[in-house]
Amino acid sequence: MPYIRSKNKHMRVAVVGATGMVGHVMLEVLAERQFPLTELIPVASARSAGKQLAYNGKDYTVITVEDAVAQKPDIALFSAGGDTSLAWAPKFAAIGCTVIDNSSAWRMHPDHKLIVPEINANELTASDKIIANPNCSTIQMVMALAPIHRAFGIERVVVSTYQSITGTGVKAVQQLENEYEGKEGEMAYPHAIHRNAIPHCDVFLDNDYTKEEMKLVNETHKILDPNIRVTATAVRIPVVGGHSESVNLSLSKPAELDAVRQLLAAMPGVVVQDDIHNNDYPMPLQAHGKDEVFVGRLRKDTSQENGLNLWIVADNLRKGAATNTVQIAEYLAANNLI
Fold this sequence. Notes:
Elements: E1 12-16, H1 21-32, E2 39-43, E3 52-55, E4 58-61, H2 65-70, E5 75-78, H3 82-94, E6 98-101, H4 117-120, E7 130-132, H5 136-152, E8 154-163, H6 170-181, H7 211-223, E9 229-236, E10 243-251, H8 257-266, E11 270-272, H9 284-287, E12 293-300, E13 307-314, H10 318-334
Parallel strand pairs: 1-2, 1-5, 5-6, 6-7, 8-9, 11-12
Antiparallel strand pairs: 3-4, 8-10, 10-13, 12-13
């Protein structure tokens, strides 16, 4: 459910990257959650400027980022890539606008907060003018890990992700559709994705991990606890609905499964779906279009003391990106931090 909102009479909201895949979902989420904006400012690249974009039954004209700064919005929701965020977020912040950025540009910057509202929104203040939205895979994982860590302590995380092509963008969706139909076309990946699994999300780094894998490590440290040891393998699969994660935990204390289920069920934004006798467990097909994080396949790790396995699924464009961004904006508005 949305947060209680401020009665601020003026809430001018810019969506930077409004014509992109995540930007489109941001607009959907803003409308669905009835965010109290008084004016929408859709922003995109110069080649999209002048196009019409529908929101809540009304058409809006897309403008450039330069023109958006001149209009001095109260909030700017960024989903236009890291380079755009690095170049323009400080310019919006300089005019008093609060930026919530969905790229990786500011996530690990020591002066900017990395926020999942259900976990650490209380860290925010009115002086936070550039706020980072975590990586989609990190968000859904820490949503499940946070209550477990508070109760039992997490010493180590081993996570393997099975990530939707929508995390790559429109080009990847088109590649899958072309391959399914047997057509030639532009490739988003170095290999076919149809009927395949590619253990390669984002670029490889000097340590032989991908950037996506290290996001899971570094962002978990910043949001939850730098003492948690994390190792990750990220895999791209031909799925549209959302990301799935197989997570193995080493806990500091013994934990009974019923207690873990109760903790997860009490966590806002988490749905426990864990009835194997009726084949009920999280799947991206069912998570698609939903804002919740779904957790199931809870079981003890029989290979180690205080070990726990769980399966986590969420729509990467919703809670993994757009919804989390809008929730941050809601929190700021509700607490008069804008």
